[in-house]
Amino acid sequence: MDWITISLLTLEAAFGLFLLWRSGLLRGGHAWVISIALTIAAFGLRALAFDYETLDYKDFLHPWCEFFRTNGGFKALARPVGNYNIPYLYFLALFSYLPIRDLYLIKLLSVFFDVLLAWGSAMLLGRVTGSRMRKLACYFTVLLLPTVFLNGAVWGQCDGTYVAMAVLAIWLALEGKPVWSMLCITLSFGFKLQAVFVMPLWAVFLMQGKIRWKHLLIFPAAYVLLVLPAVLLGRPFIDTITLYFNQTGSIGSGLNYNSPSIFAVFWQIREPEPASTIAIAAASIYMVNLLAVAWVNRAKLSDRAVIALAVLFAVGIPFLLPHMHDRYFYAADILSVVLAYAMPALWLAAPLTQFASLLGYHAYLKMRYLLPMRYGSAALILSLALALIGLLSSFLQEKSPRKKKRA
Fold it and tell me: Which sequence spans correspond to the domains of the chain?
């Protein structure tokens, strides 16, 4: 790794400390010492992994960067390349102009969003606790989480981009900043389609009055602006707007791809098409039922309830859907950590979800199964049960003070 990459990685580490300081979480010498030590550990691990190349990098990411390098950089956005959406391709086009190895640039981008992801998680947790140490612990737990480290610094993937924006969007909605929340969730969706796993929360925010119907109009308008540079460079507008629909075939026809979904349990299915249809219907019914529960209890929708619902959506929807891949529970990994710190009695939800995701990561990175994937499915069922307990307990906690007040 060259000195420029080391310098940029150091700047990202310093940026994380700046965010913590700016948020008032680094008060006192002990907080500084612990934070600096853990930051060095987190970024030292990442530096050790920066030279590692996966097949995804060799077969996809590197050729895509080379495509931009040999076809005029940003001008090449007019032509179809890869199966990622436009916002991420902007970065790959930018990388084609820089004299740094694209492997390092791809990983630096992912690590930058690791920092935003960890900070956003701490800020979201701050909605339910004023404890600086608990928020600091959440920040470094996310930053050192195995799937976060493996996803960006080792694998060179960009799941941290859309999940960081989604977590920030949830926090901003709860903070009463609907416009910024809509902009962040639009950017999240712009990076990856898997943002839809948490997007039902915006129906919950409507129930709470955190956002209004008019704010929903920001989403399509912001999305058009997000892809507009590619359109101006020559990409067909309709093709750009409907990119996700055109890429559905790239997901694959298999019911499961190293994912701890329900199809890791029911894997000997001879008729995949009807099974896929039933699974999509089941995921839809699951989502509608959760929203119905939220609507019935809308007067008791606390911030803790929102966090529990976020976990129920992020775990439950991909758990039931067909064609899920190994990294599709990334949002669940992060939100289960926030839930564990928000409701310490439910701490087991985080390691259970992490265990399930890591089985998929191991299957890809090592090209063999550590354990049967159905073990991960069982872990996710337990995680869902804990999140449901958290949701119901949050409703009860909101009910008790009102009774006392009437008395």
Answer: 1-250, 252-397
